[in-house]
Automatic annotation (TrEMBL):
The protein's name: DNA-binding response regulator
Domain HTH luxR-type: 158-223
Organism (species): Candidatus Viridilinea halotolerans
Amino-acid biosynthesis in keyword set: no
Gene3D superfamilies: 3.40.50.2300
Entry GO MF terms: DNA binding
Coiled-coil region list: none
GO BP terms: phosphorelay signal transduction system; regulation of DNA-templated transcription
Length: 225
């Protein structure tokens, strides 16, 4: 079954180019395009895509607010921010809105297709170019995402929420921090995908986080990445 993709960008040439490149992949189908956030919301309702490639700066409704509205409705479709912006503020706002990926438009089309497959399978990822620059700002990202951050002068000790996790859940949380999909976790730990999903649900509940991105950020904050 093909992965259904919606492309959202206010530049027609960008949309067309991405659609052409992804359309060559046997397992990916571009089901629609939108020129702004409002069109994206309508297209999602009409076309039921698995993945949305979302630009940030668009007229009428920008990509951050469109992402926020989509993710508030549930985990599907997965949203990947696809933009030219590398600065911390744009990354922070995109992740805080619930995006499962943050990628740059100049990336290779093969890497983009693989990113679509990753988030469609339940994974999350950030462009390698900007991962390093995010590390000093994890506290700010956590705050924007409503993930509890330890006080700067707090004693170094095991966080109370981490103590709630089983050893298996800690292992899975660390794998989430590295962007592994449910399928990859299942293969590496030799457990069923259903069991993986149950563990992840328990992790979300114990850490009081909303999604995989927040869980991954929490894990990085607390040394599990």
């Amino acid at each position: 079954m093909k992965i259904r993709v919606l492309i959202v960008d206010d530049q027609v040439l960008i949309r067309t180019g991405i659609a052409t490149l992804l359309g060559r992949k046997a397992d990916i189908e571009v089901v629609g395009q939108a020129g702004n956030g409002e069109e994206a919301l309508a297209q999602v309702a009409a076309l039921d895509p698995d993945v949305v490639l979302m630009d940030l700066m668009m007229p009428i409704l920008d990509g951050v607010e469109a992402t926020r509205r989509l993710t508030a409705q549930g985990p599907r479709p997965a949203v990947i921010i696809l933009t030219t912006f590398r600065d911390d503020e744009h990354v922070l706002h995109g992740l805080a809105a619930g995006a499962r990926g943050y990628l740059l438009k100049d990336m290779d089309h093969k890497a983009l297709a693989e990113a679509v497959r990753t988030v469609a399978a339940g994974g999350a990822l950030i462009n390698p170019e900007i991962t390093a620059q995010l590390l000093p700002h994890l506290g700010r990202i956590a705050h924007a995402s409503h993930v509890p951050a330890p006080a700067a002068n707090a004693p170094v000790r095991q966080p109370e929420r981490l103590a709630l996790l089983t050893e298996r859940e800690r292992s899975i949380l660390a794998m989430l921090a590295h962007g592994h999909s449910n399928h990859e976790i299942s293969e590496q730990l030799l457990i069923s995908i259903g069991t993986v999903k149950n563990h992840i649900s328990n992790i979300f509940s114990k850490l009081d986080v909303r999604d995989r991105t927040q869980a991954a950020l929490w894990a990085l904050q607390h040394g599990l990445g």
